[in-house]
Amino acid sequence: MFKQTLLLASSVALLSASTTMCFKKEHIDPSTIETVKLEGGECGGNLSSQDMQRLGYEVGDIKISAGDTGLNYIYIFKKDEPLATVTTDGKMILTKEDLKEKLIELQDEQKAEKAEKERVGNVARGKELYTLQCVKCHGEKAELSAYNVARPLNTLSFDQMEIAITDYDLGLRKGSYAFLMKPYANNMAVDNLKAVWAYIQTLK
Ligand code: HEC
Question: 5 by DSSP, 3-state: which?
């Protein structure tokens, strides 16, 4: 009867709280009021104020008035409850914690999906670029040492490759075959280098 459920829904925050009222009439000894069974509400004659607090309720308010032989107590208990989301067929119940977990799971899945999509896209583009522009000197599997001077590309980290390309681009590498590599480096956008590198990783 006194139970209220409050639902505040925004895009992510969902909150529910319940309130219940219990009472004790004509109570004589004030020192036992915390442990005596209370009537009404969720207490229903079985639970004391102490029991309610053990169950996670907070005492919101206590009203005390004089009765005929003792004091009348009215307790308002409040509790933040996990949100129960029930589907229309009444099957699924999610608590607030569940929801939070689900949300994080979903976000992780979306991130992983996006990363995988990006990787697959990169690999496809990288394959095209590598086959068109690099394979003849660096080998089918990026395993060759071009002109016996370059390190096999399949042994390079992305950073090593990027540094090398930047160096050729700026004319900082002075090897006798660097001039062969320079035009490719001059044309290489960093996105394309990422794609080529991603493709090379699939050749190992
Ligand atoms: C005409 C042959 C040729 C082609 C085509 C070519 N390279 Fe090279 N590449 C070389 C040579 C030769 C070197 C070594 C040059 C030097 O430093 O003396 C080299 C070096 C490199 C290095 C540095 C390796 C190291 O040991 O640090 C990278 C990275 C590289 N190439 C990437 C590429 C990529 C990516 C492509 C395709 C876009 C490509 N190359 C196309 C000949 C080529």
Answer: coil
